[in-house]
Design brief:
- Helix 2 (36-45) crosses helix 3 (69-85) and helix 3 (69-85) packs across helix 7 (172-180).
- The protein contains 17 helices and 26 strands.
- The chain is α/β, with parallel strands linked by helices and 564 residues long.
- The strands form six sheets. It has a nine-stranded mixed beta sheet. Strands 16, 17, 18, 19, 20 and 21 form a six-stranded antiparallel beta sheet that branches.
- Helix content is 30%, strand content 23%.
- The longest helix is centred in the N-terminal third of the chain and has 17 residues, at 69-85.
- It has two domains: 6-371, 3-Layer(aba) Sandwich (Rossmann fold), CATH 3.40.50.12780; 448-550, GMP Synthetase, Chain A, domain 3, CATH 3.30.300.
- It binds adenosine-5'-triphosphate (ATP) and magnesium ion.
- Adenosine-5'-triphosphate (ATP) is lined by residues 201-206, 208-209, 245, 319-323, 341-343, 345-346, 366, 428, 430, 442, 445, 537, 539.
Length: 564
């Protein structure tokens, strides 16, 4: 456990807030109702924060562009007016396919203002995945750029019957129209239960699902920004996720703006030296990133981190995959503070379980349920579910249904949605256990768990132990069918710079794993691999490791990162 000296945190951690309190700190629309764009932008643009920087945009090359709350309000209103002029009304779907450029943020917020269901798409998607998502969400408008239009949209071969308009934000015609549009617009009255976003899952375990979200989620974004991310007045916040994933929207757009802080948006992709420079030069105080990025920084070596100083940095959090204890310790060394793991999924719309600033961090644990969140370990039974009362016992992570940012449906998969809820609980598909202090520990996805000689083995535990070995940069673990024990554990390992794959190293890593895990749980086989297949949101795709190992069909690869 990492005990944190509160005095050393420079600012006292925020007190826990429940949803009612969070609700009270929001405005609501002037005439009644609740709209995310109002809470994120309009109320600040009309108050003392009008000329404060809302988004500090860092282009891939060139000088930073600060965008104030007033500018963000005006630009998103212009966008809203252009959407309205094209007949976009409450409930219509607007898809946004752009790199992390300012227009993406204007389009998303403008879409919310007219009451559209907004769906930001990751710009690296190919033509087919774009079309599938637009069709699933019945997109009426697609917002994109000239380059992405030529490269992707123009190459879509299947019909998109609902699509009426494609807007290219950097075309001269669009620019002219944008400049001529009114910078004011009325925000459509939406209610907490009205659709705000359509988000697609990462496709780690199968075909991506489209989750429907609502404006009421802003209550959760407000509460979690305070408690789980410890946002304070004056913070400079950087969420490294792309808005094409739920993290990049909920926490890369909505949450920092709702809190009226300055949000860093970097157009460029991951680059270790650039990222350290941004943390230092932009004086980032709260940083929200992901294990895949942290592992890449670890791979780049501690020396690079040591060339920088981060006096403004106060709080670092991570989400998306289990955060190996090694990574938490690396944070202590390279950044001078632990990394706070938190857990949630596209379906939950916001952070549910977290190591907060006020808590001691247990490396390897995802933390405790946030105030208002009821989490349990459940077992599916014929007649319903049984909640586990014992500590340290594995089962499916379940959440009491009804939190404000809960998804309200899967696009075109009603039955699947219904099946997620049993006896008033939402079943997450993740396996976990709870300890005596109420901390939750991730075991693995239900689909990834390995059954070997009567044991249930979670890949996370095995991967974390492999990562303790100084040569190992990343590890992905699968179960391989075996006639005797059911499944045996096989590990795929990538090495840090300076290490060479070979029989000696293999035996050394196997020995280390056996010593730490015991022969029953340790991998029987280790394969070296320069990279592991991962989703574009950075998650190791164990299903693909397994399919390739067993020569099975690879399934939906729409979210697979290139070159993997
Ligand atoms: P799909 O549902 O399409 O297979 P996905 O589940 O990866 O994809 P997301 O909703 O982006 O799509 O990811 C949520 C999942 O990521 C969680 O259910 C969990 O398995 C994993 N995850 C997120 N945060 C953590 C964490 N802190 N520790 C462990 N696992 C995490
Ligand atoms: Mg999932």
């Amino acid at each position: 456990m990492i005990r944190k000296d509160v005095a050393a945190l420079k600012l006292a951690p925020n007190a826990p807030v429940g949803w009612d309190e969070a609700r009270r700190s929001l405005d609501g629309l002037p005439g009644g109702g609740l709209n995310i764009a109002w809470e994120a932008v309009e109320r600040h643009a009309r108050g003392p924060k009008a000329s404060q920087v809302a988004i500090r945009w860092l282009p891939a090359a060139g000088a930073a562009r600060p965008i104030t709350y007033r500018e963000l309000s005006e630009a998103s209103s212009r966008f809203a007016n252009l959407l309205r002029a094209r007949g976009v009304r409450k409930g219509d779907a607007v898809f946004v396919l752009c790199a992390r450029i300012p227009e993406l943020y204007f389009a998303v917020l403008g879409g919310l203002k007219v009451g559209a269901a907004v769906s930001p798409l990751f710009s690296a998607f190919g033509p087919e995945p774009i079309a599938t998502r637009v069709n699933l969400g019945r997109g009426k408008v697609l917002v994109t750029t000239e380059a992405l239009f030529q490269k992707k949209v123009a190459k879509i071969a299947v019909p998109m019957p609902t699509l009426e308009h494609v807007l290219r934000v950097d075309s001269p015609e669009f620019r002219r129209e944008f400049e001529a549009a009114s910078p004011a617009c009325e925000v459509v009255r939406t209610e907490p239960g009205d659709t705000s976003f359509l988000h697609f899952t990462s496709g780690t375990t199968g075909s991506p699902k489209g989750a429907v979200h609502v404006h009421g989620a802003v209550v959760m974004h407000c509460a979690t920004g305070r408690v789980a991310l410890d946002l304070h007045e004056g913070d400079v916040f950087w969420c490294t996720a792309d808005p094409g994933w739920v993290t990049g929207t909920s926490y890369g757009i909505v949450t920092p703006l709702v809190h009226g802080v300055t949000s860093i948006v970097d157009e460029a992709d991951f680059d270790a030296a650039r990222w350290y420079r941004i943390l230092e030069e932009e004086r980032v105080s709260v940083w929200y990133t992901a294990p895949t990025a942290i592992r890449m920084l670890m791979k780049a070596g501690a020396e690079l981190a040591k060339q920088h100083a981060f006096p403004s940095l106060r709080f670092v959090a991570s989400v998306g995959e289990p955060l190996n204890p090694e990574a938490v310790w690396w944070g202590m060394d390279a950044l001078g503070m632990p990394i706070h793991d938190n857990w949630w999924q596209t379906e939950t719309g916001g952070i549910m379980i977290a190591n907060t600033a006020a808590m001691d961090v247990k490396p390897g644990s995802m933390g405790r349920p946030l105030p208002g969140v009821e989490a349990a370990i459940a077992h599916r039974r014929e007649t319903g579910i049984e909640l586990e009362s014992r500590n340290d016992t594995e089962g499916e992570l379940a959440l009491r249904a009804g939190w404000p940012s809960m998804f309200r449906g899967y696009l075109d998969q009603e039955e699947r949605y219904r099946k997620c809820f049993v006896d008033g609980w939402y079943l997450t598909g993740d396996l976990a256990k709870r300890d005596a202090d109420g901390y939750f520990w991730f075991v693995g996805r239900a689909d990834d768990v390995i059954k070997s000689a009567g044991h249930l083995i979670g890949p996370f535990e095995v991967e974390s132990v492999l990562m303790e070995h100084p040569a190992v940069a990343e590890a992905g673990v699968i179960g391989k069918p075996d006639p005797v024990v059911g499944e045996v554990v096989k590990a795929f390992v990538s090495l840090k710079a300076g290490f060479t794959a070979g029989e000696d190293l293999r035996m050394e890593i196997l020995g280390h794993a056996r010593k730490r895990l015991g022969a029953a749980v340790a991998p029987k086989e280790i394969a070296f691999s320069t990279t592991l297949p991962r989703t574009r949101s950075g998650k190791i795709m164990r299903r693909l490791l397994k399919a390739r190992e067993l020569g099975l069909p690879e399934g939906d690869l729409s979210t697979l990162e290139e070159g993997a």
